[in-house]
Design brief:
heterodimer, A: mainly alpha, ABC transporter involved in vitamin B12 uptake, BtuC, B: alpha/beta, Rossmann fold, 17% strand, globular
Chain lengths: 288, 382
């Protein structure tokens, strides 16, 4: 059997997930310039919200999924207003913000474990019986097709908002220089709040898709975050589109790496790529 | 001189604190008690994927302890459990053992349920001259590990061996393994591989770290090597379900072999009927006609209002408490003596059948073949 088409498909699926994560992460980072580690937990909250509404309450997916995305966005926004804004107003250094967000990540994961147990859960209705599509000699599930399409849609949607709307221009201005943006009359606080909402909602979407594809558990936030961060750095930190290139590069390297060495070392491959980039091309594939 | 007064006073206070504190500590760190309840250390997983084994195990222990205490305890002394979470891994297993040996000063520890916990606890128990009695750890690496360690659950060497022999009989010559990087799944692989290559077969293996959820490329890689069967070898059923689902999604339908944690879990098997249909496993069986086993099932249901899950483990957990009771009655509450006594257990009648502990600390007797049919695990007869 020729394994190549399947490996390419696997890489694309993984790359799409990473791309969505990197888009949200980079959007927040390029605006506030600090590493928001709670991003991972905010993503997982969205997935658990869908789990709660659709699996425990039995609501239809077209209600549960948008609600999950909204909840992730709202939590992200609330975290900004209640934690990060205060710290930023106090002119805390980015290291302080990083540590604070690490605390938020840990606390939120613990809360999820308390309410939903640490056990692995799946969002899809049944453990089998999903529609399968064949492509060359590889196969792909319906969920995975949706993941690919969603990645494209989020990329296009975000590009549209950032390039063509006034809000997008304001986001860019805040990211370039917050003080100057304030002076020219931009309500930076409001803009950053919105950025947190949108970025977190995108994160929630990614985790929900992962939940349908494989499953969810409270501690999945950190690995999700790390993949998003690696993709962002490799692609060019702060460059919203660079993250997408980094994500697909990461997806391909990981899945083709397995071809030569055991799957046990997948994460090691991802971090090796990160270190290579940090040492030899710290600006990433694309500059900001 | 005047200025030195407060200084002297503070030194006196410090000295007083040390003396009083030392006295206090000397009183609390007393030698093993000769009256009052007998503390038994317990290590089992209460959080994480492994908690599915730990929670029912604790229920079974408590059930047995209540029964023993109700019938007069051991020489009039009640048994109490000091429970520590080993989280099914070596690091927390070692921490749990440290606390039980050095802080609680127990003479015998029942645990761990997971091989990783037990492997880590062995040297600590040995150093503290505390007997370590596992009713669930099945890694072949534990065989003959220490004179302080023994178990009434058989080694995986027997599980891997039985499945390797089945695989060879089925005409399979290459078996692919997808194995979690932990001691228990590794033990099954090692035993299978040893027997299978002895017979003339070959294994190919992909390992994955705990917590992984995307196995697609590993599965595709194994599939491209055209094995005759796939062995899904994980620590807990959740990971086996994830893998089996992705195998199906890649449109691959190899004959499946699974670890006893899958065939021994009615819930996993019935909820994932389509995934595991026809899968083979080897379980350390239960004898539904054994009156002690029937008693365990009934009392568990009565007390906890649920069916006893993982019955193969439940029976050895239940027996462990009764064995400990007998041991303490025979040689007293002393880790060293209990460990030596364990080697003399022969044809002891329990819920898990006749228990005999060999000189290596292993239980003599083994696993039987099972097959999943229509969402249920059945005895497999060739």
């Amino acid at each position: 059997m020729d394994i190549l088409p399947q490996l390419i498909l696997n890489s694309l699926i993984a790359g799409s997930i990473y791309a969505i994560l990197a888009l949200g992460f980079n959007l927040i980072f390029s605006t506030v310039n600090f590493f928001d580690l709670s991003y991972g937990a905010v993503a997982v909250i969205g997935a658990y919200a869908v789990f709660y509404f659709s699996k425990l309450l039995g609501w239809p997916l077209f209600v549960a999924v948008p609600l999950g995305v909204l909840i992730s966005g709202t939590i992200g926004f609330l975290l900004y207003t209640s934690v990060y804004r205060r710290l930023r107003m106090r002119r805390s250094s980015n290291t302080v913000l990083l540590v604070a967000s690490l605390g938020v990540l840990t606390a939120l994961q613990a809360l999820l474990a308390i309410f939903f147990s640490s056990q692995f859960q799946t969002l899809s209705a049944t453990s089998s019986g999903e529609r399968l599509f064949s492509l060359f000699s590889g196969s792909i599930t319906e969920t995975q097709v949706i993941i690919l399409l969603t990645a494209v849609a989020v990329l296009l949607g975000l590009a549209f908002v950032l390039k063509l709307t006034l809000f997008g221009k304001a986001v860019k201005a805040v990211g370039d220089d917050e003080e100057v943006a304030k002076i020219v009359g931009i309500n930076t606080d409001k803009i950053i709040g919105k950025v947190f909402f949108i970025g977190s909602a995108i994160a929630g979407l990614a985790a929900i898709l992962v939940g349908f594809d494989t499953g969810i558990e409270p501690i999945m936030g950190l690995p999700l975050l790390l993949k998003g961060v690696i993709a962002s750095i490799v692609g060019g930190i702060g460059n919203v589109y660079g993250g997408v290139a980094g994500a697909f590069l990461l997806g391909f390297v990981e899945n083709f790496g397995i071809w030569k060495i055991s799957g046990e070392w997948k994460d090691a491959i991802a971090f090796a790529v990160l270190i290579l980039f940090l040492v030899f091309r710290p600006q990433g594939i694309f500059k900001k | 001189m005047e200025d030195n007064k407060p200084k002297i006073l503070s030194w006196v206070i410090l000295l007083a604190v040390i003396i009083v504190g030392g006295f206090f500590f000397a009183r609390t760190a007393k030698a093993p008690e000769v009256a009052g309840p007998i503390s038994l250390g317990v290590i089992l997983p209460l959080t994480g994927d492994g908690a599915v084994y730990g929670e029912p195990a604790l229920n079974v222990y408590q059930l047995a302890v209540d029964e023993i205490n109700k019938s007069g305890g051991v020489g009039g002394r009640d048994l109490v459990l000091v429970v520590e979470d080993g989280k099914c891994n070596g690091k927390d297993g070692a921490n749990a053992a440290q606390k039980l040996v050095n802080v609680d000063k127990v003479q015998i520890i029942i645990g761990g349920i997971c091989s990783s916990e037990s492997l880590a606890a062995v040297p600590i128990a040995e150093a503290g001259k505390v007997a370590l009695f596992s009713p669930g750890a099945s890694s072949p690496d534990l065989t003959g590990r220490s004179p302080y360690f023994f178990r009434d659950y058989p080694s995986d060497a027997s599980q891997g061996r039985v499945l390797a022999e089945l695989a060879y009989k089925k005409g399979w010559r290459t078996v692919a393994f997808i194995q979690e990087s932990l001691d228990y799944p590794l033990g099954i692989f090692k035993a299978f591989d040893a027997r299978f290559s002895e017979l003339g077969g070959k294994t190919v293996k992909e390992e994955f770290p705990t917590g992984a959820s995307d196995f697609r490329s590993s599965i595709a890689k194994l599939q491209s090597q055209k094995p005759d069967a796939l062995f899904v070898d994980t620590q807990a059923p959740a990971a086996s379900v994830r893998i089996a689902k992705q195998v199906k999604e890649l449109k691959w339908n190899p004959p499946l072999l699974v670890a006893d944690i899958v065939v021994g879990d009615p819930k996993t098997v019935s909820e994932n009927k389509a995934l595991f249909e026809g899968a083979f496993g080897a379980e350390f069986g239960v004898d539904p006609n054994n009156p002690k086993f029937q008693h365990l099932l009934e009392s568990y249901k009565q007390k906890y209002n649920a069916e006893l899950p993982y019955q193969a483990y439940g029976q050895t957990e239940y027996d462990a408490l009764y064995l400990v009771k007998e041991g303490i009655a025979a040689v007293g509450l002393d880790g060293q003596k209990l460990a030596a006594w364990s080697r003399t257990i022969k044809d002891w009648d329990g819920a898990s059948g006749q228990v005999t502990i060999e000189a290596t600390g292993d239980r003599a007797s083994g696993h039987v073949l099972k097959i999943v049919k229509d969402g249920k695990t059945e005895l497999y007869t060739e």
